[in-house]
Structures are given as C-alpha cells and as structure tokens.
From TrEMBL, chains A, B:
<feature type="domain" description="HTH hxlR-type">
    <location>
        <begin position="1"/>
        <end position="92"/>
    </location>
</feature>
<dbReference type="Pfam" id="PF01638">
    <property type="entry name" value="HxlR"/>
</dbReference>
<keyword id="KW-0804">Transcription</keyword>
<dbReference type="InterPro" id="IPR036388">
    <property type="entry name" value="WH-like_DNA-bd_sf"/>
</dbReference>
<dbReference type="InterPro" id="IPR036390">
    <property type="entry name" value="WH_DNA-bd_sf"/>
</dbReference>
<keyword id="KW-0805">Transcription regulation</keyword>
<dbReference type="GO" id="GO:0003677">
    <property type="term" value="F:DNA binding"/>
</dbReference>
<keyword id="KW-0238">DNA-binding</keyword>
<protein>
    <submittedName>
        <fullName>DNA-binding HxlR family transcriptional regulator</fullName>
    </submittedName>
</protein>
<dbReference type="InterPro" id="IPR002577">
    <property type="entry name" value="HTH_HxlR"/>
</dbReference>
Amino acid sequence: MGVIEGKWKVSILWALGEGACRFGRLRRMLPGITEKVLASHLRELERDGMVTREEFAETVPKVEYSLTGPGIALNRALEPLGDWGKRHLLGG
Amino acid sequence: MGVIEGKWKVSILWALGEGACRFGRLRRMLPGITEKVLASHLRELERDGMVTREEFAETVPKVEYSLTGPGIALNRALEPLGDWGKRHLLGG
DNA sequence: GTGGGCACTATCCTGGCGGTAAGCGATCTC
DNA sequence: GAGATCGCTTACCGCCAGGATAGTGCCCAC
C-alpha cells in the first residue's frame, strides 16, 4: 500500500501507462500537481522500482520516465479499481 | 481514490470481507489501530456506502458492521492489488 | 540582452491525519 | 464497590505530505 500512497501517485502511474513521458509533459497531463510533488513522487516510484528514469545528455535537458515491469503489473492491478470507480462513483 | 484513502481503510475493508464484525472484534483484528481512527474510518466508509452499521438495542451495546454491495465489489477490485503486493513485494 | 522552456531543487508554511488519553452510561463480574 | 466490557466521543498534540513560490544552469528565440 505504501507504494501507491501519495495523493498523485496513482494518477502518475496511469499517465505513464499511456507511454513514456518527459517531466514537463507529465506535469501538463496532471493539472493541479506542483513540480515539487511530481518530482518527489517520481523519485519514490523510482526507488520502489515502479518507474525508470532515463536521462539524455543533450543540449536541452531531457529526462524520460517509463514504467518498469512491476510498474506495468501494478497498473494492471489498479485497473479493476478504476473500473470499480467508474461503475460505482461515476456511472451510478 | 478518496474512498480508500486513510491509513487503515483497506485493512478494514479486508477484515470486513471475512464477514460481518462488531466494533471490538474489528479492533482486535487490526492490531495497532486506535478506537478513534477505527470509528472515524468506519463512519467515512459508511458515508461512502461501503459498509452498513447495524445497531442492536440490547442491554449490552452491540453494533455490527458489514460490507454493502459496492463494498464487496470494492474489495474484489482491491484483490488484484493484494496479489500484486504478494507477488512483487513479498514473493520477490 | 531579455525572456522563456527544461527539469529540477530549496525553502517556507499550513492543514489535517492519525496517535494518545480520558470519559461516558449501562451492565455484569468478582 | 472496583474493575471490566462495549462502542464510541471529545480534546489535545505532533508531524509531515503537499501547496506556493523562487532559484538554478544551459540553450534558443526574439
């Protein structure tokens, strides 16, 4: 449970589930999240082995985040929860 | 997500998944939880329609909590998460 | 040369979650 | 009558997750 605790962690996981993302793109995909929170959550997810951080040493700083195997599995395990939410909270 | 946020809520749901329970029994099933937290979480779960509270007017106070339909569905939706946890955190 | 985008980091601040402890009102036990 | 059981409620406190804001170093566009 600790792995997904944090206000935005599940959202990050879901956003990343659609494909690898850069920091700024993630931020834009998650309206309302602050950079600090995104950065710290990303770091925790990385520490827990759910995402990988790939840094590209180019003139323009570029970092890509993507789900690891366990991260993808976690996302799948989270899917029923999303379905449940849609069914019982949104869909009546 | 708000429905399962709270340090002990998932544990309560799982405990209740094994059958209806009285307050004191729940407390004993969840070592470390305080009465205040159990009571407030139970109240939130009730408000969110996940559990029912049945009060029996006997000489000895008796209250039973049980999962509602959505509560049971939530529990099921939480199962994959439990499996994932066992697989990736405990089972290597 | 001024401004903006990039990916952060640092600092400060606040709310509220959760822990501790105590009380209550009836009854049953020793 | 002291203590325990039962299901809470109330009051208080501490901590820290998370929000707001600003700064950094490099490069590009205007």
